[in-house]
Write the structure tokens for this entry.
Amino acid sequence: MRTTPITRLLFLVTMIICDGSFCMAIGSKPTDDTPDRRTFGLIGNVKEVQISITDNSEDIVDDPILEDQLMTFDEKGRITRDINDCEYVYDAQGNFFKGAKEYTKMERDEKGRIKCYETRLDDEDPDCYRYTYKYDTKGRPTTIELLLWEGLYTNTFTYSGDNVYPDKLAIEGDEEGDHYSIVVTYEYKSFDEQGNWTERVCNTETRITSLGDTDITQESMSTLEQREITYY
């Protein structure tokens, strides 16, 4: 049977969509045009993104607020605060020197895009998050592999035209004997003058199969995400 609550997995999905990376390795020097904003599905000289996620199901719970999140960027487009309230500081040369965890690693590709990110409390800590990114020719993430201490998930994004925001996210993964198949489809409701979405509905269908068990668990969830974006 399922051992990981679906709410936890959906939180990881939100991390991938809204904030796929969190910190830079010591000595990593991004270029001046570091495209972090594109990695996070944003256009323009974004300074701050406030995100509110609420229940959008027909039977709304007593407390419809699921989560409030915040992302910030510096003027060169580097992430300075992620959705987990972790702040990241760079020196005058653009090198990262302060992060949320004692042990962090970060690689960028030749175009300055996030290639791989890993964090754990220290070198011996088995609890690890590692994100590995692949991009299309437009600089949009096409797949993100998320390696956890309990499992591995492959996240595949589908886009329309030149949009930096996805139409669909498909997730396949295994964790502690369970196989997850998740499909998230997006309905975009509003955009700002820069072309960034400010409101969308996320419809999530989850199918969970347990190893050695013929039972299949299926769950549906709908959330409303709203973004208030501030620019430099």
Summary: Residues 1-5, 19-32 have pLDDT under 50 and may be disordered.
